[in-house]
Amino acid sequence: YGKNTIKFLRLHKEGKKQFVKEVEVCAHLRLTSPQEYLEGNNSLVIPTDTIKNIVLVLAKKNGISSLEQFAIDICNHFMTTFCQVAYVKAYVQEVPWQRLHEDGVPHIHSFICVPDGIRFCEAEQCRNGPLIVFAGIKDLKLMKTTQSGFEGFYKNEHTTLPERHDRILCGEFFCKWSYGECKDFDFNCIWKKIRECILEAFAGPPDCGEYSPSYQKTVNCIQMFVLSRVPQVQVIEVVLNNTFYNVVDMKNLGLTNDKEVLVPVETPYGSCACTLGRK
Amino acid sequence: YGKNTIKFLRLHKEGKKQFVKEVEVCAHLRLTSPQEYLEGNNSLVIPTDTIKNIVLVLAKKNGISSLEQFAIDICNHFMTTFCQVAYVKAYVQEVPWQRLHEDGVPHIHSFICVPDGIRFCEAEQCRNGPLIVFAGIKDLKLMKTTQSGFEGFYKNEHTTLPERHDRILCGEFFCKWSYGECKDFDFNCIWKKIRECILEAFAGPPDCGEYSPSYQKTVNCIQMFVLSRVPQVQVIEVVLNNTFYNVVDMKNLGLTNDKEVLVPVETPYGSCACTLGRK
Amino acid sequence: YGKNTIKFLRLHKEGKKQFVKEVEVCAHLRLTSPQEYLEGNNSLVIPTDTIKNIVLVLAKKNGISSLEQFAIDICNHFMTTFCQVAYVKAYVQEVPWQRLHEDGVPHIHSFICVPDGIRFCEAEQCRNGPLIVFAGIKDLKLMKTTQSGFEGFYKNEHTTLPERHDRILCGEFFCKWSYGECKDFDFNCIWKKIRECILEAFAGPPDCGEYSPSYQKTVNCIQMFVLSRVPQVQVIEVVLNNTFYNVVDMKNLGLTNDKEVLVPVETPYGSCACTLGRK
Amino acid sequence: YGKNTIKFLRLHKEGKKQFVKEVEVCAHLRLTSPQEYLEGNNSLVIPTDTIKNIVLVLAKKNGISSLEQFAIDICNHFMTTFCQVAYVKAYVQEVPWQRLHEDGVPHIHSFICVPDGIRFCEAEQCRNGPLIVFAGIKDLKLMKTTQSGFEGFYKNEHTTLPERHDRILCGEFFCKWSYGECKDFDFNCIWKKIRECILEAFAGPPDCGEYSPSYQKTVNCIQMFVLSRVPQVQVIEVVLNNTFYNVVDMKNLGLTNDKEVLVPVETPYGSCACTLGRK
């Protein structure tokens, strides 16, 4: 199969107020026949350049009301226009432009890039199959400076890690969920709600937090919480790439370091991933 | 001379509330004698490992009330402790952790990384010279979707660029300013004010903006505005790495594209830089 | 499941001659019980730190005769030592250090990093299943400046690409093949042979090359050639991330550009991927 | 001032044999008047787009016999064509394409990218001043697995580093030298000779090497050796970004690690830089 990536800006105005969406679109196609590979016969091949034109034309005609709707539009276009397409997947990712505010007043045409978690989505369809929609957030970096530990793990002669009941929990989250065969969802609103759920499940109550006995359990809490709060989500996958921090031993420098100065441990870094669905 | 980079986390608590600063420190030293280079005589060399220990001990003892104060502390320590140091520069850069909020309530120990412009500073000193402090912001990405043009430029037989009076202005800013021989400044407060000035000068009034006739003029406006509003700033340098966007020509696709769909032009990209001081 | 990454150097000497292998190892484990996720019960969890220790101890004890043998050693260790492990995968990637030569004479202890295609491998095993070994090369950048075209493709109203019979073929290759349940293979020797096959199939005969009617066909040629020459390979996957180059139109600059000056087209870039096995 | 970056490919043929140069060119200009910044008056501004056209036209007309000659051509063009240019600098960097060989036979049109040190150069000129040419190599990663130590350094209460007489010396080199006001040099030939000198000075004799008492001394040896062997070089700057490797302590794992397994220390990493000229 083939894929390609297109990056572009979609502007629109309402009166004098300007709106902007900058996206990166990656379209994957698989054709019904492998003749392009086996025989070098290009007669069914849809060139990258044509795919780019289609994506830009769809953006021009339909706008981008939500990333998900745009991905659905792309899938629909390829499935209905090209009978040689056996499978199509459209991945859409957003550049996180946010409207500037001056003393709380929104600016009509100025924006700042705020990459505190990148929104993306995917729509995919096999010929004669349902259109499935996924959405997600990636590059979301979170930290808890307390209320995290790791104890009671398996031990043998290769174990050197001490048990810790007050460590730093820090990492980069990748979360991706499926809406199943979705109907008329308000994708923008649901996405914002899920983002809030992830942050809330990670952090716990603002006044005291919630103890995390492991990265794995935190991953599971996020999944359980999203599934309980957002009925549109069918399955949720969470990957957490942790950064470990070690409390610097300052004894030989004549000081007691009471978890005040820590250094990141760059290798090994760990990662834990889990996919959870409804029964 | 030599330099090295240390990354670490400094935590502190006030009651149950946790505070976090994650910084990357780069210390440059030049010694009074080049004998380490010429003769392989290491007797005056301060190993990287020792420099790391000193930075961590200073963080432990003094905390990091501001990046600038911490950079000053490092310079002072090296100048007063090691008579073989002829010059010291300390660069300190912040990982932009922000406290999480749930429904407007700040969380006592959870943070999110929001890289919408990275704060950094530098302090430098030659033996017997003044201690000079710089501060700055980098990786600040801004966009204006209108109120920008480029006309009346020099033309000859190699000119192919059309004049434009309504283009996108987009780029990544690097701003660095000098406080001179600073006294007891509230560095955190001044930095926030300068950041606001940069955004305001870039965007213009929220209801209408301000026309930019060129990247160069916008750079100059930012500098003039900061110098006029913040008396502590002596000199300000601004570098703007532009991203150009071209309106996609859709005529051969049978459509009129009224600055609705644009693609970034990755090469050539331009950059303009200017340094401006007080008379 | 969880994974983690460890980077280290393994040295050994034969007389005064030094040998070096620098590798990045990533171990994935899945446990038989999800209790760590669901209940926060860590009693079966093997900490990242323990995994790191095991990998380093295996490197110390066994050395790294080939990446593949080392990956097999890791899988075997985890499967035989920990009954709670349901699945293990070991990915091993090499830093491409090559011995320095001075006037053709190899240096006994000096090396240069030459990243012209990175060697990697994977071994994986489910409990009670066979141990499967993969190997591959990635980040291999190749270019043909002629003998490549793209004609006869599907056209409709969104087509703007002209047919071309003499374009640049350039891209980054990722190739990964399976050895099946391998026995006592000379992995180093086979890997080198496959790399040569890839280059030969890409380039064609040195005096004239071989015409490529599409990226897809070139991908297929590489696969067919490797399968025909290297009986140990069961299945081979090739992904090609193309860079397109456009001949610069210099008509409005008064010049005829006969495919002498070309610029890379950064978006859209395309990619084609194919997996081919034996019947 | 302003600068911009252009990336392109220059092909030429001799009979059926194809030659390729892919370069990234960055041109910096400073104008005689700051009116573009202060007044938004663009009448002297040479747009990025025009600069790109000029660079491409020069590549088309002159070819790229050497990076240095091409940089000189660019400087000459801007100085003689535009009287408003006060200063011009042209930086040219090469994508390291190498001709493919099959069984020792060079291929007529196929190339592989081999980034084992990137060649670059700079030419700069002020109006009425001389044209100065620099050349260099960057991203050159070298390692010695023995014959390196670090002893006899300055010690105080913050010292924790032990003395070592047999460590790994590993790092990334950046070397840049000046040819002064150069005449008709064979830049390609000189560059290759300097690269060999750097490798030889780093490694020492192939059968035994040469002991390095510090990174600083190795930097100096390289500089001295290049200056002694290549009379065209006036001044040479070398920056070495070291990677430290620690021997893993395996005592608590019941093993003796005789410098067989080492891990890279990612922070702090050090860097040492020195500039050396002729008397």
UniProtKB/TrEMBL annotation, chains A, B, C, D:
The keyword Oxidoreductase applies. The keyword Transmembrane does not apply. Keywords: Oxidoreductase, Peroxisome, Purine metabolism. O2 binds at residues 48, 242. Urate binds at residues 48-49, 150, 167, 216, 242. 5-hydroxyisourate binds at residues 48-49, 150, 167, 216, 242. Its EC number is 1.7.3.3. GO terms for molecular function: urate oxidase activity. It is an enzyme of class 1 (oxidoreductase). Pathway: Purine metabolism; urate degradation; (S)-allantoin from urate: step 1/3. GO terms for cellular component: peroxisome. GO terms for biological process: purine nucleobase catabolic process; urate catabolic process. It is found in: Peroxisome. InterPro entries: Uricase. It catalyses: urate + O2 + H2O = 5-hydroxyisourate + H2O2. Its main location: other. Belongs to the uricase family. This is Uricase. It comes from Setophaga kirtlandii (Kirtland's warbler). The lineage of its organism: Eukaryota, Metazoa, Chordata, Craniata, Vertebrata.
